[in-house]
Amino acid sequence: MLSDSAAFSGFSVDDLDAARAFYEGVLGLRTSPEPEMRGIMHLHLAGGRDVLVYAKGADHTPASYTVLNFPVPDVDAAVAELTARGVRFEQYDDPPTDENGVMRAGGPLIAWFTDPAGNVFSVIEEG
Length: 127
Known about the structure:
The chain is of the alpha/beta class. The chain is built from two helices and eight strands, in the order βαββββαβββ. This is VOC family protein. Pfam families: Glyoxalase (PF00903).
């Protein structure tokens, strides 16, 4: 029944304008509002994929898991570029991250950061 459905995911933010400014100005992504509904925007990702982002205001609780993973050819280069744009990468003990926030202990290199609403995103080395 659902195997042919064009499913999509979504997550909430506390301030849609701050999220839009971060996604566009810092991450370089495209967004567009949902004309029929206030407080909703589409985050346009490569490959024609969209994610629904909706304002939840004071009721927003950041996701405690990674909501978006961005595959990149070189995590260290992506971390350096995003850091220069003001992104702060998370530091974790488990799994351990280095001084730049990159997890190098098995598996692909990955570094996590948050959007203005506290939702967790990552850059993950592909290939």
